Known about the structure:
263 residues, 2 domains, 8 helices, binds tetrahydrodeoxyuridine
Amino acid sequence: MSGSLLASARSHFATLRARAYVPFSDRPHSVLLVLRDGRWIPGVRIESASYSLSISAIGNAVTTAYSLRCFDAVAGIVSSAPLSAADRVYLQALDGFSGAASTSNGQGATAYWRTPPPELGTAVDPTRPVPASSEAGISAARNVATAAHVPESHFPVGAVLVHNNQIAIPGVNVEHPDWTRILCAERNALSTAYAYGYTHCTALYLSCPQAPNGSPCGACRQVLAERAPEATLYMDRHDAPMEQSTPAALLPSFFNSSDLISG
Ligand code: THU
C-alpha cells in the first residue's frame, strides 16, 4: 500500500470512526472502497440491537457501490482494521476479488486490490435532490430499482431515503452467493446515509417493481424502527395509490437497545 494513499485513508478513518454506530461492541470498523479514478465510497459498521442484523463496514460500502452504479469501477478496499474471516469470504465471492492481493501496513490497516491502487481523490457524492412530491418519490424508487444486483432472486427493489427533508440517498438490494449476507434496499439506503453522516431519516420511498404489495421485510422493519423511527414510509402499489405507514406501525413492540441494556 503506498504511503500517501495510506496517510489520506487514515485521515478519512478518523472521520468515519464517528459515523459508525457501534453502541454494543464499541468497534467502529470502517472501510474505503476505492474506485479506479481514485474516488471512494465509505462504509461503516452499523449495529442492531438484534445483533445478527448488524451491517458490516465492508457490506455497507459494497452495497453502496451498487446503488451508485459504480461497483464495476472498484479498484479495491482499504480497511481500518484487518478484515475478519467472514469479511474475507464475503469479499472473495465478489466479482474480481477472488484473486485480489492483500497488503498490510503492520498497524492494522489492510488493503485488497483487484486492480493497481490509484491516488486517493474525493468521496463519491451519493446525494440526490429530495423528490418534489410523494408520487415523484415513488417514481424515483422505481428508477433506483434498476440498479439492483439480483443474480439470485431476479427480484429488484429500490429505496429512496430522505434525510432531514434536505437530501435523498438511493438504496438497492444487493445479493451474494451467501444469502445471509444479502442486503435489502431499505437497509442499504440507511447504511449508506450513516456512512456519509446523514442520520435523521424523515421519509423512505420503496418500490418492488415486480410486487404491487411489496413492503419491508421483518429485518428491515427492525432496523428502520431502531434507526429511522421518525420516517414516513411510502410504498409503491403500482396502478393503485401508494400506501403510507411508519416503522412503529409496521413493527409494534420491537426489540430495542433499552431492552438489551436493562437485560
Ligand atoms: N428485499 C428487499 O430488498 N427489501 C425487502 O424489504 C424485502 C426483500 C430483497 C432481498 C432479496 O434480494 C430479494 O428481495 C428477495 O428476498
